[in-house]
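Appendix C: a fully annotated inverse folding record. The material below is reproduced so that readers can follow the format used throughout the book. The structure is listed first as tokens, followed by the designed sequence.
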């Protein structure tokens, strides 16, 4: 019986996972006696091992989000524009990334360790309505991502390949479709939600985020794009925190909705 048949016919995922696990152990030289009684047929071993490896990658990979916020919870300030993409006062939140590069090196590296990224269209650029076809992002010809970036939008567009391996791919099917595509493209690595605030809030509200990494600037913006706007009923477990001269880094595990 092949893995897809097992998955459909066995009660619960546990039996299917166990079969794949012990089949993998058998082919790695472990005792066949440890295989469960309803083992995968030998003709399906290559498929089972491939499915097992893919499954383990999916289990280990996480959906993460790094976001810099003000002390009063804003990701960007008011009056966002082409000249001020982060709004009035928003750039000051990110001083830690440029003025303390060594002090915050680990957190800076963590922002770019994903295998694929998801962002909202407003983060990709200032255009509203139908795209002009000339905008290529805020980051020049070599954006820092160096991986596929899935942009949420209402307008279908051809992928935009940049230098360094970054490719912007435009998704019209919403956050779940974007996440499915990003997982497939990430090669077993994490998928990172790059922003902005509205996109992060959608993933939080839908229960699709595993880890939230807040970088809290000791500044007040007063208004703008607020993190957690419209998000309710979520629980967070603090995993680590540390402060440097310009920022406090706090990592939270987001409790799945069915366990909250």
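Designed amino acids, in order:
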């Amino acid at each position: 019986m092949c893995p897809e048949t097992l998955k459909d016919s066995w009660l619960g995922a546990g039996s299917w996972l166990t079969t794949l696990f012990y089949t993998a152990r058998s082919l790695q030289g472990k005792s066949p006696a440890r295989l469960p009684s309803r083992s995968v047929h030998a003709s399906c071993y290559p498929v089972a091992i491939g499915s097992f490896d893919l499954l383990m990658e999916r289990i280990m990979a996480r959906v993460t989000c790094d976001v810099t916020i003000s002390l009063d919870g804003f990701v960007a300030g008011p009056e966002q524009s082409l000249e001020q993409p982060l709004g009035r006062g928003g750039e000051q939140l990110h001083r830690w990334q440029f003025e303390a590069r060594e002090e915050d090196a680990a957190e800076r590296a963590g922002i770019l360790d994903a295998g694929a990224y998801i962002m909202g269209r407003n983060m990709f650029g200032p255009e509203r309505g139908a795209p002009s076809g000339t905008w290529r992002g805020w980051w020049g010809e070599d954006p820092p991502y160096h991986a596929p970036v899935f942009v949420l939008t209402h307008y279908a567009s051809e992928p935009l390949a940049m230098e360094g391996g970054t490719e912007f791919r435009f998704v019209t099917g919403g956050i779940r479709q974007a996440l499915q595509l990003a997982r497939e493209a990430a090669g077993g690595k994490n998928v990172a939600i790059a922003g902005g605030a509205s996109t992060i809030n959608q993933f939080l509200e839908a229960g699709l985020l595993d880890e939230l990494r807040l970088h809290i600037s000791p500044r007040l913006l007063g208004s703008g794009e607020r993190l957690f706007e419209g998000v309710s009923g979520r629980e967070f477990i603090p995993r680590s925190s540390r402060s440097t001269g310009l920022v406090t880094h706090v990592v939270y595990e987001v409790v799945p909705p069915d366990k909250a």
